[in-house]
Amino acid sequence: MTTWTFKHLVALGLLGVLGACDTITGGEGLPANLRPPEDAALPAVPLTQAMMMQGSVTLVPPNGYCIDAESLTQSFALMAQCEALGASTQSANAPVGVMTVSLARSVLASALPSAQELATASNLGTPTDARQSEQSVVFQTTGTPPSSDLSDTHWRSVSKVGRITMGAALFGPTGQRAVSAAGAALLEEMISRTTAQTNAG
Questions:
Q1: Is the predicted pLDDT of residue 36 greater than 50, yes or no?
Q2: What is the distance between the alpha carbons of residues 155 and 183, in angstroms, rounded to a whole number?
């Protein structure tokens, strides 16, 4: 088994991937203090998938979520309920939340870091309900949310998609489904869909 240290995490860029998960820019259907001014140009149409990292990854949201096209770069995307982003697509009763995804190129060892190592390296609270496999780590933790409208309890994940490290965070309002076990399922679905579509491409 590979022994992970925080130096390994830094070397692989995991800290950058996790840290970028807290960066949220633009987007409708978000807490009021995260929305652009009302007189801003209308946002681009939300996306149901996006090619990222120069085509190395095809990002696919979980069911009921779409990608905010205005937030999209080669290595970052913000997602929320499709209807909240102005799409005609039904949100399929998906939990209300804001999901961010950050990508970085790295060659990961066969074993991912543990939830505790990831949480400690990112100055997050003690992880709970950790779900770890060879391809992903999903856990609940606490940390400063990107908006006061969102709970400090949230879900994080790190996964391998080929040679790309994908870090994600899901925030939701206090007491709502996104911060319950349903939030973990959303991250797991996003990881599964993204991995399948990327491998198929």
A1: no
A2: 7
